[in-house]
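User: Can you recover a sequence for this backbone? Please restate the input before giving your answer.

Assistant: Of course. Working from this structure:
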């Protein structure tokens, strides 16, 4: 019975991966739209096909979890550890806004929508047995993947860099400081070329900053992807990413009282 459940689980896992949008969807340009004068960000709403895909995927995930539980299946301790991450996501699609012209290049605003936003370690460990599984899986350390920006040298050549705001940053009272914009490596090996926006001249950095800054007045800061901890400042150039708050719990042994 256990072996039969595991065979069924493998069939369900393959069906689950097959209904997810193909990875190539994330790098495809249906058409090229460029904003040169006004930087109005259109509504980056969830694509209409996502809810239907999500419903089917959620049903298959429930089946998979049930079969693994019935078979008493558990990973063998070889799962990768992500101490700063909070959850696995499975499958996603991108929604792109029109590109913005910057000094000697373009910025492409993007928002990603996960198909399944929270998947158990056990399910991911089982899916990892299937070829190509890691094209559909992400480990997230923030709630969802919000609006961010890809840098392009021309209208169809995407770099290995994305730009993101420090969403944890707060201005000091009585100051007019700028919310920092950061750059980080992304999709290395799959991009058209390598870029280093943190090393560019101030004129180009300011051009990139100004192309994105207006979006902060149109969307709540929670709609944006936060720059990662290893991101480097684009503008202001001396900025440092706001660290993630760490909550330390104090464990008291049974029968032991806290000292004051």
């Amino acid at each position: 019975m256990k072996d039969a459940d595991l065979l069924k689980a493998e069939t369900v896992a393959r069906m689950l991966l097959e209904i997810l949008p193909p990875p190539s969807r994330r790098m495809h340009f249906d058409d090229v739209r460029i904003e040169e004068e006004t930087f109005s960000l259109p509504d980056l709403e969830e694509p209409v096909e996502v809810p239907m895909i999500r419903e089917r995927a959620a049903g298959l995930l429930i089946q998979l979890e049930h079969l693994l539980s019935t078979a008493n299946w558990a990973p063998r301790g070889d799962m990768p550890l992500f101490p700063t991450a909070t959850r696995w996501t499975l499958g996603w699609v991108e929604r792109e806004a029109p590109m913005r012209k910057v000094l000697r290049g373009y910025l492409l605003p993007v928002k990603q929508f996960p198909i399944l936003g929270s998947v158990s370690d056990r399910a991911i460990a089982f899916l990892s047995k299937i070829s190509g599984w890691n094209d559909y899986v992400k480990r997230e350390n923030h709630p969802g993947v919000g609006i961010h920006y890809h840098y392009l040298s021309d209208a169809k050549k995407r770099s290995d860099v994305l730009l993101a705001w420090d969403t944890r940053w707060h201005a000091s009272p009585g100051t007019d400081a700028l919310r920092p914009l950061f750059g980080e490596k992304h999709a290395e090996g799959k991009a058209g070329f390598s870029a280093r926006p943190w090393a560019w001249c101030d004129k180009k950095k300011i051009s990139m900053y100004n192309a994105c800054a207006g979006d902060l007045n149109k969307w709540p800061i929670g709609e944006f992807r936060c720059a990662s901890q290893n991101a480097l400042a684009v503008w202001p150039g001396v900025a440092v990413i706001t660290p993630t708050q760490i909550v330390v719990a104090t464990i008291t042994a049974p029968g032991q009282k806290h000292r004051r």
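That completes the design. The chain has a mean pLDDT of 79.
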